[in-house]
Amino acid sequence: MTLVSVTRLRLKSWYDFPGFMWHNLLSCWQIVNIKGFVGGKLIQDRNRVFWTVSLWENQLAMQHYRNSGAHRQVMPMIQKWCNEAAILHWEQADDSLPNMQEICQRMEVEGKFTHLLNPSPAHLERKIAKPVGSNAQALPLHPRKKQSLGQSRSSI
Q1: Which one, 49, 91, 151, 156, has least CB within 10 Å?
Q2: Phi then psi for 129, rounded to 5 degrees?
Q3: What single DSSP character describes residue 12?
């Protein structure tokens, strides 16, 4: 079984975009280098909405990522930057990335909406705006190949 983890964040303002993107870059570096990450994608949607979809070997691997490094450091910033934030996890038999239709349907029904200091009306009503297109502007994430101890740099 593969664990699917989905995060949906909506920035309150474009003013917060540079800081958000910097920390997003650091978290992406962490995710592609951490053990147990299978694959994923980052999606920029309309109205300052950002989705992260990630696949994990198991829940323990995902929790290790979530609770360490760059990701752990940036989590408190959600209160400052976001007026909508929701997460979702489920297990599936294969390691294929789910489509946005399935993700949205599951998020509306099963999603856990984060307690925020300044939530939008949509967040309070647990409403998820449908994304533009199937993947809006998606950036694929792939695990970085690790160099084994016996392998020399010249053979990479």
Answers
A1: 156
A2: -65, 135
A3: S
Q: Where are the alpha helices (DSSP H) in 67-156?
A: 69-74, 78-81, 100-110, 121-124
Q: Are the C-beta atoms of 130 and 45 separated by less than 8 Å? A: no
Q: What is the pLDDT of residue 135?
A: 53
Please tell me the distance from the alpha carbon of residue 32 to that of residue 140, in angstroms, as a whole number: 11
In contact, 113 and 55? CB cutoff 8 Å? no
As a whole number of angstroms, the distance between CA 142 and CA 156 comes to: 17
Positive or negative, the CA dihedral 45, 50, 52, 53 is negative
Q: Tell me which residues of the chain have a pLDDT lower than 50.
A: 147-156
CB burial of residue 67 (10 Å; 0-12, 13-18, 19+): exposed
Tokens encoding 48: 């300052």
Copy the structure tokens of residue 85. Answer: 């934030």
Instruction: For the chain, list the domains and their CATH numbers.
Output: 2-145 (3.30.70.100)
**Is the Cβ–Cβ distance between 105 and 128 less than 8 Å?**
no
- Show the DSSP H helices in 55-116 as ranges: 59-66, 69-74, 78-81, 100-110
